[in-house]
Amino acid sequence: MIIISKNDVSKIVPIGLGATNILIMFLSYFLLGESISMIQLIGVVTVIAGVILMNI
């Protein structure tokens, strides 16, 4: 709530959603031994690029 009160919600929510998906993927890799496919890595790069472009 502190982050939302100090920043624009239209920028914070997409960053939070993208970060949550990426975090879940990496935690499942390290904790559960799931494999990460090339499509998932492309998705991570796409999400990170989108967040960077949003904040320019």
Structure description:
The protein contains 3 helices and no strands. By secondary structure, it is mainly alpha-helical. Helix 2 runs antiparallel to helix 3. It is flat. The model has no long low-confidence stretch (mean pLDDT 88).
Helix content: over 70%
Our estimate of the beta-strand percent is: under 5%
Instruction: Please work out how many helical segments DSSP would assign.
Output: 3
Order of helices and strands: HHH
Low-confidence stretches: none
Distance between the termini: 23 Å
The profile of the biggest β sheet is: none
Q: Using DSSP, what is the number of strands? A: 0
Tell me, what's the shape? flat
Radius of gyration: 13 Å
- Tell me, rounded to a whole number, the average pLDDT: 88
Structural class: mainly alpha
Summary of the model, kept short:
This protein has helices at about 1-5, 10-30, 40-55. It is mostly helical and about 55 residues long. The longest helix is centred in the middle third of the chain and has 24 residues, at about 10-30.
